[in-house]
Design brief:
The complex is a heterodimer of chains A (282) and B (169). Chain A is 25% helix and 29% strand. With 282 residues, chain A is α+β, with helices and mostly antiparallel strands. In chain B, helix 2 crosses helix 3 (61-79), helix 5 packs across helix 7 (147-164) and helix 6 packs across helix 7 (147-164). The longest helix of chain B has 20 residues, at 14-33.
Chain lengths: 282, 169
């Protein structure tokens, strides 16, 4: 028996030797991609671009659908919002002008800004372009000369004309804006769960409100936030839009959209171009 | 038999664990997928995916990484329609030259052929143990199976191959 067991053990050993790699390729062959370093697994801070982007998508869509003499007005307000989101897919480019309350990011975080309801107002422009290959490019230009760009794969940043490429991910993550289907589902589900509403106010303006959920914003520092958009009854133009914290009265505007232009004329080269303005540090 | 007794320090970051495991991960993926390029692609995509998810609540990062890697390889094989099974009896066709590979390509072909003769649950335990250098306890965690089951699968898999190659060694 011992001989048989020994024979079996030796043979099992032989099998293991056959299965153990001797010519395994070296891990030096692998080039791991560059990823933003997560400083914390808790997403403590608002992604200002995502907020701006989500609101921009909503606003751009609603801006398109709400036009004078549009028979869509005959639909329910909820349907108007849903239809507007459906239309967003047809938009290849847009630009949104916004104001956001921000504070400088902490010194141990390699990033520029953090949303804060007690922050200072700073103006910005968000430009979106969907290329022929369905690649989504987003560019944010702050009034102080900081420019942030995401081309679907890489992040680029400048202070004025100087490249900085800060390593971050929490404050520059445009995935929500690039995932229109997700936004559409969010609102559809929000309407079903009664966490969104669309109404026509006494002045016949269409007002759409969605209660913030983790799908939009993930921050313990901002509770009870909503996205609200209002359109003028006379010409269907956007009169007000933004992200508000409704915990206190009056509501605090966190991000406010002033204007949105859809289907703007901009090329991939233009949206990806390095800025040529100086950085005006505040 | 335990090849090593690696445990994950809860204070280690995801980056540190991946760096420490990269060789074993690449080895596992290369022999699982059969191609260096495919293995590199899977690991690169997995690297990005792991960094996009919160891991502070993960109890054992190393097991979490290998579980993810195993799933990613399975997915890649499904997409490439490269899952194949062979009969254990076909191992009798292996030549002496087959059993003494001279490079990665020959070795990977041999190992793939041997493991294709086993049920998935046995071959995966063998891969994780011999290629991924995972302990049986870690494999039990990765596959969410009882430890005795994992050990049995390993033993039966080796025994199955031993019987199939009885006259070759």
């Amino acid at each position: 028996m011992k001989t048989e067991n020994t024979h079996n053990q030796l043979t099992d050993w032989h099998i293991e030797q056959l299965l153990k790699p001797c010519f395994a390729p070296s891990a030096d062959e692998i080039r791991l991609p560059k990823v933003p370093v997560r400083k914390s697994t808790r997403r403590l801070w608002i992604n200002i671009a995502r907020i701006g982007g989500v609101a921009a998508a909503l606003i751009a869509g609603l801006f398109i659908i709400i036009t004078p003499n549009n028979t869509a007005i005959a639909k329910t307000p909820e349907q108007i919002v849903i239809d507007a989101l459906e239309k967003i897919e047809d938009v290849n480019s847009y630009r949104v002008y916004f104001t956001a309350k921000v504070k400088p990011a902490p010194t141990d975080v390699n990033d520029y800004y953090r949303i804060a309801k007690d922050g200072e107002d700073i103006n910005g422009t968000l430009t979106f372009l969907k290329t022929e290959k369905n690649n989504k490019i987003i560019r944010v230009e702050w009034e102080n000369g900081v420019t942030q760009l995401y081309d679907g794969k890489n992040y680029y940043e400048w202070e004025g004309t100087r490249r900085t490429d800060k390593q971050h991910c929490d404050s520059f993550h445009f995935l929500a804006i690039s995932d229109i289907e997700k936004i559409r589902k969010i609102f559809k589900n929000a309407f079903k769960q009664n966490t969104a509403s669309a109404t026509i106010d006494p002045n016949n303006a269409v007002i759409a409100i969605a209660v913030n959920s983790d799908a939009f914003i993930d921050s313990p520092n901002l509770e009870n936030t909503i996205i609200k958009a209002t359109f003028s009854p006379s010409n269907g133009e956007l009169s007000e839009a933004g992200l508000y914290e409704v915990k206190s009265s009056p509501w605090v505007s966190i991000v406010k959209i002033h204007r949105a232009k859809s289907n703007i004329s901009i090329s991939k080269k233009e949206i990806m171009a390095a800025p040529n303005k100086k950085h005006n540090k505040k | 038999m335990e090849l090593n007794n690696k445990t994950t320090n809860p204070n280690q970051t995801l980056e540190a664990v991946i760096t420490a495991e990269l060789s074993a991960m690449y080895r596992y993926a290369c022999y699982r997928l059969g191609e260096r390029d495919a293995a590199q692609e899977v690991i690169q995509e997995l690297y990005l995916k792991l960094h996009s998810k919160p891991t502070s609540e993960v109890r054992n990062l190393r097991c979490y990484i290998y579980r993810s890697l195993s799933n990613a390889c399975s997915q890649a094989l499904r997409e490439r329609r490269k899952i194949c099974f062979i009969d254990i009896d076909s191992l009798s066709d292996l030549t002496a030259e087959d059993l003494h590979p001279a490079d990665f390509t020959q070795e990977q072909a041999l190992i793939s052929r041997l493991l294709a003769a086993l049920p998935d649950e046995q071959s995966e335990v063998i891969r994780l143990h011999l290629h991924g250098e995972c302990t049986f306890a870690e494999i039990a965690d990765i596959l969410d199976e009882p430890l005795p089951t994992v050990k049995s699968r390993y033993r039966y898999g080796i025994e199955h191959l031993r019987k199939g190659l009885q006259n070759k060694i």
